[in-house]
Design brief:
The structure holds 2 protein chains of 2 kinds.
Chain A: H1 2-23, H2 27-53, H3 58-82, H4 94-116
Chain B: H1 2-21, E1 32-37, H2 41-45, H3 47-55, E2 59-64, E3 73-74, E4 77-78, E5 82-86, H4 99-107, E6 111-115, H5 122-130, E7 133-135, E8 142-145, E9 161-163, H6 170-173, E10 182-184, E11 189-191, E12 198-203, E13 208-211, E14 229-235, E15 241-245, H7 253-257, H8 274-285, E16 291-301, E17 311-312, E18 316-326, E19 331-333, E20 340-345, E21 347-353, E22 355-356, E23 361-367, E24 373-381, E25 389-398, H9 413-434, H10 447-461
Parallel strand pairs in B: 1-2, 1-5, 5-6, 6-15, 17-25
Antiparallel strand pairs in B: 3-4, 7-11, 8-13, 9-10, 12-14, 14-15, 16-18, 18-19, 18-23, 20-21, 20-24, 22-23, 24-25
The chains are: A mainly alpha, B alpha+beta.
């Protein structure tokens, strides 16, 4: 019992520290996180929907899910590149990172829109 | 003008016999038959058989096997449509004829009848071996059957066999049932097991064996029972037909007229079955029966009549073919229910049985499979006794065109929504980034890219 409560406290402590650390994250990174979360959530909803109605317009399903997953991956890459604490990309201006992100999204969504049916 | 007319009529009248008599796909029956004999006595001793052939309209040309003038072809053209080898003891043929010439004759679609006998020469055995049957190696062996022999006044050595074990095919031996047994006296042969084209038409009874009737049997006979074939036929892949028998005397007048009573049976027939059996079999060999042709192969979409250059996946199509059978004088509709068509690309994707209208027109409709590529319509029809039909027609099948897919499927609306909301949110939340206090107005220009994606997607599809 004591052990359970202590692990519960530990978990709480961990959660609190994570939360306080995260509150120090710059606002633009938080927005990207929100966007990634949204995209992954949408992808999951589509998978559940497909499981319930069947895989008939499979191309539509694939493009819907890949749109979400693809954008999420690109957004994560953007987040790594514009993060000021990441020294690896300190020479890369955030404008350039954002332009890459936009270009990749352009290519991705041209394919997605073609395949959507 | 009148002179030309005379020349025209004269040339036609000269050419006409050749035009009519030559073997052609339009009239598949043989007309000119070369008969090679050991001895002209056979011509009279077997005259009933030859006369029955003449009555059927065949033009028989009798030659001695060692006649130095015999030739199967001249200037690359075959002089005969069929060859009858009634020369069991010929050691070599005269003229330019040899085993290779005979095999070439058959390979070019001509027919052959071989009758061997006891003491058959190596030459005849070699021809038979080339055709897929092996005569008993012992030159003096005969087929002996102590239970299935033909009863005669003298007890004899039981080499005169009465056999009624016919192949079950109306096409090959005629639709009229052969009542009386067939008399056979001669050498037995076995079929080469790897040759699937050779068929036993008349087989020996299970109690038969092949041995020398004059000597005592010291070792078990090499050929026994139903493995012994008395009469066999071959239909080659080019539809050439070959008849092989180990008895020349079964064609003789004596056997044709003789009465027959099989041992152990009380029924005595006035006349043996030889004449009916051999005449009907010869008709089959000379393509009077069982010769099919397929014409007017057509296919089109259901509801249309023009033949398209290609189909789309999931099209409904109709395939039609007309099949006729040669009756000896004309092409009659061939009626059966087992003709199948394959829609074939490496393996059959569709296999359908064709239905017919009793007038020879076969048709079937089916849906093109959901697979694109280069397909073939294939009809591979092989039926016992009939010439084989092998038709194939290539046809490409294309996938849907970009604008032929189904659009705006209600089930897919959530997927559309997901894709568009992703694009939409690409645009709007990142706009907030532009107003980040640290980097104000820096990303302003880049946002036009996002707008561009958004507009592009709208123009492209919605």
């Amino acid at each position: 019992m004591a052990r359970t409560s202590s692990s519960k406290e530990n978990a709480q402590a961990l959660f609190h520290s994570l939360r306080s650390a995260y509150s120090a994250t710059p606002v633009n990174l938080k927005i990207i996180d929100l966007y990634v979360g949204f995209a992954v959530f949408t992808a999951l909803i589509q998978v559940v929907y497909m499981a319930s109605v069947g895989s008939f317009p499979f191309n539509s399903f694939l493009s819907g899910v890949l749109s979400c997953v693809g954008t999420a991956v690109l957004a994560v890459c953007l987040r790594i590149q514009v993060n000021k604490e990441n020294k690896e990309f300190k020479d890369l201006p955030p404008e350039r990172a954002f332009a890459d992100f936009v270009l990749c999204n352009l290519v991705l969504h041209l394919v997605i829109m073609n395949f959507l049916g | 003008m009148g002179k030309f007319w005379v020349i025209f009529v004269a040339s036609i009248s000269i050419l006409l016999p050749f035009l009519c008599n030559s073997f052609s796909p339009e009239t598949p029956t043989d007309r000119r038959v070369l008969v090679l004999l050991d001895d002209f006595a056979v011509k009279s001793s077997h005259s009933s058989y030859f006369n029955s052939l003449k009555l059927l309209g065949f033009d028989l040309d009798f030659k001695l096997a060692d006649d130095p003038k015999i030739a199967l072809q001249r200037y690359g053209q075959y002089l005969y449509d069929a060859l009858i080898l009634f020369c069991p003891s010929a050691e070599r043929f005269g003229g330019s004829v040899d085993v290779a010439a005979i095999i070439n004759f058959v390979d070019s679609g001509h027919d052959l009848i071989i009758a061997a006998d006891v003491n058959a020469s190596d030459l005849i055995r070699e021809v038979a071996t080339e055709c897929g049957v092996d005569f008993d190696e012992d030159p003096s062996a005969m087929v002996i059957d102590h239970t299935g022999y033909a009863v005669s006044e003298t007890e004899g050595d039981h080499t005169l066999i009465a056999s009624d074990d016919f192949i079950k095919s109306d096409v090959i031996i005629g639709s009229k049932k052969i009542e009386a047994p067939v008399l056979f006296q001669g050498i037995g042969h076995s079929l080469n097991p790897v040759n699937s084209l050779v068929l036993k038409v008349l087989s020996a009874s299970p109690s038969a064996y092949s041995a020398n009737p004059l000597s005592k049997l010291s070792t078990p006979p090499s050929l026994t029972g139903s493995a012994i074939s008395l009469v066999s036929v071959v239909q080659a892949r080019n539809n050439a037909r070959i008849l092989i028998t180990g008895s020349l005397s079964m064609f003789s007048n004596r056997f044709f007229r003789s009465g027959v009573q099989k041992s152990g049976s009380s029924t005595k027939y006035e006349k043996s079955g030889n004449e009916q059996f051999l005449t009907e079999l010869s008709k089959w060999i000379f393509h009077e029966r069982g010769h099919l042709k397929a014409v007017n192969v057509k296919h089109h979409k259901v509801g249309e009549t023009d033949e398209p250059a290609l189909y789309r996946i999931n099209d409904e199509l109709e395939y039609l073919v007309e099949i006729y059978e040669w009756s000896g004088t004309s092409w009659e509709p061939y009626v059966t229910d087992d003709v199948q068509v394959q829609f074939y690309m490496m393996s059959p994707y569709v296999l359908k049985t064709l239905s017919n209208d009793k007038k020879g027109l076969y048709s079937v409709s089916f849906r093109v499979p959901d697979v694109y590529g280069v397909f073939q319509f294939k009809v591979e029809y092989q039926k016992l006794g009939y010439t084989s039909l092998s038709l194939s027609k290539q046809i490409p099948v294309r996938p849907y065109r970009h604008n032929e897919y189904e659009r705006f499927i209600p089930t897919a609306y959530p997927y559309y929504g997901a894709a568009f909301s992703t694009v939409r949110l690409l645009h709007s939340p990142f706009k907030l980034l532009l107003y980040d206090p640290d980097s104000k107005n820096k990303w302003q220009d880049s946002s036009s890219f996002l707008l561009f994606i958004y507009i592009t997607s709208k123009v492209w599809h919605v």
